[in-house]
Automatic annotation (TrEMBL):
Its main location: periplasm. It holds the Pfam family NMT1. This is ABC transporter substrate-binding protein. InterPro entries: SsuA/THI5. It is found in: Periplasm.
Amino acid sequence: MIRRRILPAAGFAALLVGVSACGGSAGSGDTTARKSDFCKPLTKTEKVSFGSSPSLALATSAQAEGGGYYKNEKLDVKASTFATGQDVIALVGRGQLDAAMVGYPANIFSAVDRGVDVRIVSSAGQNSADNPSSAVYVRSDLMKNGAVSGISDLKGKRIGIAGAPGSGSYYLIGRVLQKGGLKLADVKHVSLSTADMNTAFETKSIDAALVITPFNAAIDNSGVAEVLSSQGALTRAQATGMIMGPNLLKKRPQVACALLRANINTVNKELAPGYSKRPEVVQRFTDLAKFPKDLVESTPESIYDPTLAVDKKQLEQMQLMFIEQGSLDLKAPLPYAEVVDIELREQVVKSLGQAPQ
């Protein structure tokens, strides 16, 4: 059973107070250390509190519930929606939430570095090459007069980005800029909501922006901005996924396995290519995740790794970008094994009979 409510955003700094007391590596240094068979099926129903940002690529929980995958794993999931992933990290680290599906913000790496028991355990939906759900738009007048014809021409331009510095959106625009030989420091950042980008283009308060579906529709209709080739920078970009905290990783690893296993089964059986044309999938997104039906049917489909694997190279590149930008106070990227709960992933994938990635 899944029960959904909307929670207000909360500042990371305020919530982080006292979190470090939970320090230590996931699955160690606790009275309930993991056993060799910690991924065996549950024998009784367990309650799980779960948070997510309002994005179709992060809404696998609705499909896991509607398709019966949580029930099959004996999970009773209480879901909450948050404005941004940056608001959720401390809640998971403090045990106020068991897990969340969010964008990977800089503060998750800061939290791990400070000893907070929060880890990444999976990836989420990603852009396909032929029909991406995110694109960089540039004002039409700049495209027509030749001021901007390629990524390198964005140097010095005002770029609209949803979220604060250190958000997943910053990583995505950073990947695009790299294709043109630029860095985040080479452009002027304008933080604003995606819904306000069309107006910002009309008033010429921004020159370009990273726009996600469905907000691109208004821009396309107005003709105020045009898509700039990102040279494949957004294809398969991993900036989102599932995180878990001490409630599951240390105290209830068997439940952690069940939750991750349910989501992996969901993306393979319910969110395979063509899912937006399946009435039952659309209905779950509409009824359980509260997305408008026409939005679900018109949004380009996300693609999913079969085991929701977390790309090691991209995780390092993300940290390097945040460090260079100044939103992550580290001298070097944290090792993959400190950020991702590898043992949990390996046990879950093994329990599903798939090859670890």
